[in-house]
User: Fold this.
Amino acid sequence: MSERVLAEQISQELLLAYYKKVLELRLFELKVQELYRNGRLPGFVHLYVGEEAVAVGVCSNLQTADLVFSTHRGHGHALAKGVPAGVVLAELWGKATGSSGGRGGSMHMYAPEYGFMGTNGIVGAPIPLATGAALSAKVRKHSQVVVCFFGDGAVNSGSFHEAVNLGSVWDLPVVYVCENNLYATEMAFVRATKNTSVASRAAAYGMLGVEVDGQDVVAVHEVAQAAIQRARGDGGPTLIECKTYRYVGHHEGDPGTDYRTREEVQQWKKQDPVKLARQRLLDSGMDENKLQTADQQVEQLIDDAVEFAEKSPEPSAASVTEHVF
Ligand SMILES: Cc1ncc(C[n+]2csc(CCOP(=O)(O)OP(=O)(O)O)c2C)c(N)n1
Ligand SMILES: [Mg+2]
Assistant:
């Protein structure tokens, strides 16, 4: 479907909501980068800068009761699923008000009350977890849909093959979303696999596979909407491959320059998800003033999140033995 048709089908109000969410994810991660580089945040972070349209495009179709399983690069997934920015930031900051009481940090962040079933430091591990959750929903005859995000680095793992096969054979209400950002740490996907079309692998499992431009929030929304509706209607799983790119290094500390060219990064930045969503709004007739107001609202939201997290208390010393095996 052409971009023009998609843009016409979607209301300006929805476009604005997607734009603001994409911008929220972007500004959140840039703030985390700043705080981390200034030694304010503990732990270890993998930032989602450049990939925001994937999480927003997919999660904008979900209800609170639906479940999302995430990766090591999961702050954006949590925000897109509705976890408040302050709660996510407080978790990164190790504060008691974080979604896991400040005990989980970037890669063990859970917020089941928002249907966010955790970031995960083990590549490939969320895929069987999500498949199991979808089996549970089916057995309970619950209308829940489960979404599993994972990277290109996960698709050559045994857990991908085993879980996706079971998801298909049992017609589970799950949507598998591969964020193909072309690299797993410094390993280019083209060096790690012969068949570089992840979507085409779906055929091997008797499942529908779809490839989509992961930089375009509207295109992702459209593809995910169909997959989520199919899953909710007992039509089985879908494998969606979102072609995307991370602008930053693999983790904070990796300059991200040794294994890819500057030209490649610049090329992808021309398809920036924030700029694309903004352009769609301008094309729809929204004036620059209204967009600036939207920008200010999102900037304020991030400032508020920082204030909330910064002022939040540390976990009490008396709780040090809680949640420990
Ligand atoms: C099972 C396992 N193997 C190796 C690692 C080390 N590791 C952490 S992230 C990563 C690359 C993941 O790449 P990808 O799945 O494409 O996600 P991306 O970082 O590109 O978002 C690797 C190899 C790990 N965390 N878990
Ligand atoms: Mg990758």
Notes: The CA atoms of residues 55 and 127 lie 16 Å apart. The pocket of thiamine diphosphate (ligand 1) is lined by residues 72-73, 121-124, 151-154, 179, 181, 183-185, 250 (CB under 6 Å). The chain has one domain: 3-319. Confidence is low (pLDDT under 50) at residues 1-5.
